[in-house]
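Dear colleague,

Following up on yesterday's call, I've attached the two folding results inline so they're easy to grep. Please treat them as preliminary; we haven't cross-checked anything against experimental data yet. The first protein's sequence and structure tokens come first.
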Amino acid sequence: MALLSKEAILGAPDLRHAEVEVPEWGGTVRLRVMTGRERMALQKAMERDRDGIIEQLIVLTAVDAEGRSLFDAGDVKALAAKSAPALERCFAVAAELNGLTKGSIDTLAGE
């Protein structure tokens, strides 16, 4: 493998995504890999309130066709009122994309 330059690293299109069918919502949701900044935001949010981890991860990873975030931090409670199976399906895909396991989630939460 080639030794990477700063420009190559910073220019690499590394925010891959996956789509998940959510029939409860009538369509498909695109979820992507978090940035380092978003992962830190997730950690801070989990330190305050671990109960909303599912919704917090969806807020940080759900994007439109152009890669723009669908939600912001103020949408966590609104998402919590949505279908549990739909949320779980999105969470599972977002967690897999971001390499989150139960152990890494516990670590992020400071446990």
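Below is the second protein, in the same order (sequence, then structure):
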Amino acid sequence: LQDVALRFRLRAQQAGIELRTQLDPTGPRVHGDIALIERVLENLLDNALRHTPAGGRVSLEMIPDGRRIRVTVADTGSGIAAEDLPRVFDRFYRGGGQARGARSGLGLAIVRRIVELHAQTVSLTSAPGVGTCVEFGLPIAPAARESVDTPDAACEESVRRA
């Protein structure tokens, strides 16, 4: 989460948008595909920055919640009309305010699919002129999976031969 936020920090500064993070690097590890989760965060942060005017704020937050971590990306941007909310995760859907050809309408559909592949759900709340908040979960990794300092037998054999 921190790495992706850092990649967007300069873009936010150049746009005059405050990018806040509330992340706990000592928090529990999660079980997930790092590249896919980065893609989720990139899509969400890109959307948030694109729809937030100068002087606005985008925040990325992680909150431990039982057996999962809740991740939220919230902005003080233009928001989404109520009639568009039921379809925002549909493939190729672009809300009424989107100009033709502006975007493919796949970003949030990709987000939903990746989150579903992690056996979690994604939700979105929004109001025009107020902003948007997207929240999804990531399962906390079992303690046994967190230990990676014991190489498997094949690795040990390769090290001995080297």
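For the second protein, one point worth flagging: Residues 144-151, 157-162 have pLDDT under 50 and may be disordered.

Best wishes,
A.L.
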